[in-house]
UniProtKB/TrEMBL annotation:
It comes from Ignisphaera aggregans (strain DSM 17230 / JCM 13409 / AQ1.S1). Residues 61-81 form the C2H2-type domain. This is C2H2-type domain-containing protein. It comes from the Archaea. InterPro entries: Znf_C2H2_type.
Length: 101
């Protein structure tokens, strides 16, 4: 895995925009152009994600935009997709999307 914020244990994916996210350690928004990592960077491992599923019941696949709730499902996603501990939900974004009225 490459050393990028999106591969850090503290990264939370943003549910409406691919690759954007939030660092829960530094309380900052992370954009896809961010190629440097901070001193708090800790690469997320498959064991970390498995533990997250065991303790909290899910991890989040930012590629598919879906919850992963089993170890078997995690192993199907981990090598090809961006899997994170969770995501940041934007409560206002649905209101900003134009409707088809």
């Amino acid at each position: 895995m490459d050393r990028r914020c999106r591969n850090c244990i503290f990264f939370r994916s943003y549910d409406f925009m691919d690759n954007f996210g939030y660092c829960i350690k530094n309380n900052v928004i992370v954009d896809p152009s961010n190629v440097s990592v901070c001193d708090n960077f800790r690469e997320v491992s498959i064991d970390d994600l498995k533990e997250q599923i065991r303790v909290h019941g899910f991890v989040y696949c930012a590629t598919c935009r879906k919850f992963i709730t089993s170890i078997d499902e995690l192993e199907e996603h981990i090598n090809k997709h961006l899997v994170t501990y969770g995501f940041i939900r934007d409560e206002v974004a649905p209101e900003e999307i134009p409707s088809a009225d």
